[in-house]
Design a protein that fits this description.
Strand order of the largest sheet: 3-10-11-9-8-4-7-6
Low-confidence stretches: 1-53, 100-119, 160-166
Helix content: 25-40%
Bound molecules: thiamine diphosphate, magnesium ion
Strand content: 5-15%
Largest sheet: 8 strands, mixed
Mean pLDDT: 88
Number of strands: 28
Distance between the termini: 76 Å
């Protein structure tokens, strides 16, 4: 702490008077100034560049002058006019310059300023001084935020020890200026707006205005932005004199909002002093901040705002921004409330919310939603973006003018969590952009018990935003007017440029991490300071009362009124007997369920499609539906192959997928497939986007040429992110039940970098938040001698998280056993072995009357396996997804003769079938493919096992024993056969890695477990 104070002391802004004093005392003059690095003089002609009086770094200034002169020669001093005329006329090097005439006193300068009239400094000195002033202005623009008074506690944790260049930049001596220059008038460059209507100002006033613009309670970090227009836009917003002044009504609204924000927390504290609520105390201005952003955005046409935020201040946001009924919030504190909905529910500070209302500032309709989220900080960021993108898509908002997202972050999490970076990188990608997100950081300068020195390596928690050129507005949250100002600018920025922007609310946390936590254990000095700190409402009320904005009585009355609102809501909350999690839904699906929130039926129409449709889609899949489009020769062969398949009435994997997507699209269902390299397909099998070989960027998506009234198909290669992109697609899928949204992992292995989305959202989403989701995960999986990576999509992990009981045979009616199982499950896990079954399971995902996540382990070598083809017959009306593909050979006809029933899933089936044939064991060994692993087809397994009473039961898998499916299926098969028969194992031995890196070993292992699978003596002691 002591160390920090020292650092900060060194960074205190030096006022003009201090500067003057230090100049006259220690006078760091020209000789001590940092040497200026020479730069090439690029823009003007060589003759100009070689003028002897211009040193290298004059170039910027001269350029400025030059452009001003080009606009109008009167814009510049006469001496420059002569100079540029000569230079332009081709004066030889050194000859363009002529001694200036005496300076005219045309510019308006304050009387107190020393007049330049009559003074005849050398032009060299004039140029140098102007250059110095320009550098000084630029230094404020670049570095002013370093010394702005951002920290309400005055114990700033930003440590600039390693960046000495930031210290003292405002010291005019650094630029070669002297005390005597302070009253000289300088022409302002076009890159500043501090002059207002004036084009020249005395240096003293220049510094004063820069201090006011950049070094008060707002620190603007923007000079890294590549776009010059955008930099100018920001300068205008902060530099123009008086620009931050708020009107009377704005101040009154602000005060009212501060009252609500503050008194809400106080009310909760009074009523439930020992309950965790992650209060907002210390950052109460978050509420007016968000409301300002929403008002301003509504003004410019935004109708729908989707928000994501962590624990801190969440209840307050629900109450005072979204306007959730207070009694609904208060009753959450009653632990005796009975749950009215299915599922395990979630704690109150994780629940989401959706609310449509009139925005009072604009009298326009606005829909606000706060997404439910897990504890995992920042995990909701991409989910919010995905939902926002989908909302934009469904309302045809291609520019983000009607729908926008706001993300609220904690300082530690914003800096520490990689998902923040991944989400930022989606912000400008065509298929993922939401056209600008406003990020608000509750920067209370602490993360639980860890202070920023230990929590990040960057000066600010917000530095990650610089990668996307987002401006960052740091603001002292104890100055609500400054907060309101930057929020207005942020909203205006987003609505002008449709790019991300960050508001960093520098504040403090009045209590511990939660209300039960003791912060003095770890931050004693900080908390001594916090205890002395007057509340922001109190400070602001004093200010506005002193200014005469409101009277003390009016203020006190407003406080009493709000307290009464809370009290009355509290009384009403006692009448609530049931806790309806459904009231906390962030993404309702109007019309999809019945009025009780149940599926309208419990049946699934046939997933088969007509021969005509198969042909129609097949033809599109094998053609180029636009004229004069040249595709690669290899692709022509692939398309010809598809055409042959269509004529032979068969599908391979890619064509099966085409049939599923194409038919859904034709039926009006939007399909979106996203992931790394999905357009072509990692394994070069899909080719959903054709590229003209002769015209750059000319592409064609045949799937969008199926019929004029089809739904749109989106297929998009994503950034190289799993966590971010899967989260995004989950949010996209959440928005509407009438879309098939698929995320494909490059290889199944890589899904685990998105584990948080799987564990916290996909698996338990419905149980926690009564919110269904039909997202599909395509995870390429299979042991093909590729080594430990690129082999396993880790089915064991997904299966371990299924909610069906391994030991209980489901008590469900026989006739709708399958659909009821689906309805009860938390997600569906399949590994299809045929294109037709893949086709059906994709279609079932939309045709079933509810939504569940679907995890599909997809093949690699089967994509081209000659036997892994399906006839059109298996896809016609009346056909459906087969949970188990039964034996169809001789063993099926004579079940009594079967000695062994092998259950397996996925690609190993083809290896087993080949081996059985080689061994001529088609009569004695029956092979069943369990295509749907979860919910487990207990009914079919029971039936098939009973048909073969003389057979032993074997589970065969190519994965290692501690991986794959074995642990999941074994107890379930046992349950299916009433534990009367054992289940044996044929597969690889337990191992730490998913697969060997040695091809030879791979084949040996394969042969070994095939030997076991077909050795009828392998398992002793049955029956
Ligand atoms: C991914 C993740 N890791 C750890 C935690 C545990 N945790 C909860 S709050 C918190 C501190 C968060 O600090 P900050 O982001 O600054 O928010 P604040 O609580 O200060 O508002 C931590 C580490 C978590 N919730 N999520
Ligand atoms: Mg914090």
């Amino acid at each position: 702490m002591q160390h920090l104070r020292t650092t900060v002391a060194r960074l205190r802004p030096i006022t003009v008077s201090q500067t003057t004093k230090s100049l006259s005392q220690t006078a760091p003059r020209v000789a001590e100034a940092v040497p200026l690095a020479p730069q090439p003089f690029r823009r003007l002609s060589a003759s100009v560049g070689s003028e002897p009086f211009l040193n290298g770094t004059s170039s910027n200034y001269v350029e400025e002058m030059y452009y001003a002169w080009l606009e109008n020669p009167k814009n510049v001093h006469k001496s420059w006019d002569v100079f540029f005329r000569n230079a332009n006329a081709g004066a030889p090097p050194g000859a363009a310059y002529q001694s200036p005439p005496p300076l005219g006193g045309k510019c308006q300068i304050p009387a107190r300023a020393q007049s330049l009239v009559g003074v005849q400094p050398s032009v060299q000195k004039l140029v140098e001084d102007h250059l110095a002033v320009q550098s000084l202005i630029r230094a404020y623009q670049v570095r002013g935020h370093h010394i702005a008074k951002l920290d309400p506690l005055d114990i700033s944790c930003v440590d600039f020890d390693d960046a000495p260049c930031t210290v003292g930049f405002q010291n005019v001596g650094l630029y070669g200026l002297r005390e005597s220059d302070l009253d000289k008038v300088f022409r302002l460059p076009t890159t500043t707006f501090i002059g207002g209507n004036q084009s020249a100002l005395p240096l003293r006033e220049i510094i004063h205005r820069l201090e006011m613009a950049y070094c008060q309670h707002i620190g603007v970090e923007f000079m890294f932005i590549n776009d010059v227009q955008q930099c100018q836009w920001i300068r205008q917003r902060f530099e123009r004199p008086g620009v931050m002044h708020l009107g009377l009504e704005e101040k009154k609204t602000l005060l009212a909002r501060m009252i609500r924000s503050t008194r809400f927390e106080e009310f909760l504290q009074r009523k439930w002093s020992s309950e965790k609520r992650f209060g907002l105390e210390g950052c109460e201005s978050l509420i007016p901040a968000l409301k300002t952003i929403i008002d301003k955005s509504s003004e410019s046409g935004v109708e729908n705002v989707i928000m994501g935020m962590p624990h801190r201040g969440r209840l307050n946001v629900l109450a005072n921004v979204i306007r959730k009924e207070l009694e609904q919030i208060f009753c959450q504190f009653d632990s005796k409330l009975e749950a009215a909905d299915e599922g395990s529910g979630d704690v109150k500070y994780h629940l989401g919310m959706y609310h449509q209302r009139i925005n009072r500032a604009t009298e326009k309709n606005i829909t606000l939603s706060l997404m439910a989220n897990p504890s995992h900080l920042e995990a909701v960021d991409p989910v919010v973006q995905g939902k926002t993108k989908a909302e934009q898509f469904y309302c045809g908002d291609t520019e983000g003018k009607r729908v926008m997202s706001i993300l609220i972050h904690g300082d530690a999490a914003f800096a520490g969590q990689g998902i923040v970076y991944e989400t930022f990188h989606l912000s400008d990608l065509p298929s993922y952009t939401t056209h600008g997100t406003i990020h608000v950081v509750v920067n209370n300068q602490i993360g639980f018990t860890t202070d920023p020195r230990m929590a990040r390596s960057s000066p600010y928690p917000t530095d990650v935003a610089r990668v996307v050129n987002a401006p960052i507005f740091h603001v002292n949250a104890d100055d609500p007017e400054a907060v309101m100002y930057v929020c207005n600018v942020a909203a205006e920025w987003r609505n002008t440029f449709h790019k991300d922007v960050v508001v960093d609310l520098v504040c403090y946390r009045r209590n511990g991490h939660n209300e039960m936590d003791e912060p003095m254990f770890t931050q004693p000095l900080m908390y001594k300071q916090i205890k002395k700190q007057k509340g922001v409402l109190e400070k602001y009320a004093e200010k506005v009362i002193a200014e005469g904005v409101v009277t003390r009585e009016a203020y006190e009355e407003e406080v009493v009124t709000y307290d009464k609102i809370c009290e009355e809501a509290h009384s009403r909350s006692k009448d609530e007997k049931l806790l309806h999690i459904k009231h906390w839904l962030d993404s309702p699906w109007p019309g999809f369920f019945d009025l009780d929130g149940q599926p309208k039926s419990l049946s699934c129409s046939s997933t088969g499609i007509s021969e005509e449709e198969l042909n129609c889609i097949g033809n599109i899949a094998s053609s180029i539906p636009v004229k004069d489009f040249t595709i690669h020769g290899g692709l022509s062969r692939i398309l010809r192959g598809r055409a042959d398949m269509v004529s032979q009435r068969v599908c391979d994997w890619a064509l099966g997928e085409y049939m599923a997507f194409g038919s859904l699209l034709k039926e009006g269902t939007h399909v979106r497939l996203s992931g790394q390299d999905v357009e072509r397909g990692t394994f070069s099998h899909r080719h959903h986007v054709l590229h003209d070989q002769n015209v750059d960027k000319r592409t064609c998506i045949p799937m969008n040429h199926l019929s004029p009234d089809q739904a749109p198909y989106t297929v998009c290669n994503s950034s190289l992110s799993e966590y971010g992109v899967l989260g995004f697609e989950l949010g996209y899928a959440m928005t509407s039940p009438n879309a098939l949204v698929l995320w494909e992992a490059q290889f199944g292995d890589f899904h685990n970098t998105a584990q948080c989305i799987i564990d916290q959202f996909i698996c338990p989403g419905q149980a926690k938040w009564v919110r269904q989701n039909g997202i599909v995960l395509l995870l390429p999986h299979g042991m093909e001698g590729m080594g430990p990576e690129h082999s396993s999509g880790r089915p064991e992990r997904f299966l371990q998280m299924c909610n069906d009981d391994p030991d209980v045979y489901p008590n469900l009616p026989v006739e709708d056993f399958a659909i009821r199982q689906l309805f009860d499950c938390n997600w569906i896990v399949v590994n299809c072995s045929t294109p037709a079954n893949f086709f059906h399971v994709l279609r079932r995902q939309i045709l079933q009357p509810f939504r569940k996540p679907l995890i599909i382990f997809t093949p690699k070598s089967l994509l081209r396996h000659p036997e892994a083809k399906s006839s059109f017959d298996d896809m016609l009306p009346g056909t459906e997804f087969m949970r188990i593909i039964p034996e169809s050979g001789p063993a099926y006809a004579s079940p009594d003769k079967v000695k062994r029933v092998i259950f397996c899933t996925g690609k190993v089936y083809y290896e087993l079938a080949r081996e059985r044939k080689n061994r001529s064991m088609e009569e004695s060994v029956s092979i069943f493919r369990v295509e749907q692993l979860s919910p487990f087809p207990f009914d079919i397994v029971r039936h098939e096992a009973e048909r073969c009473p003389n057979a032993d039961l074997v589970w065969c898998q190519e994965e290692h024993k501690n991986q794959g499916y074995y642990d999941y299926v074994k107890p379930r098969i046992r349950t299916a056969v009433d534990r009367l028969r054992p289940v044996w194992y044929a597969g690889r031995d337990p191992a730490a890695a998913p697969a060997t890196g040695n091809k030879q070993n791979h084949l040996l292992e394969l042969q070994r477990f095939l030997d076991t699978a077909f050795n009828l003596e392998a398992f002793p002691g049955i029956q």
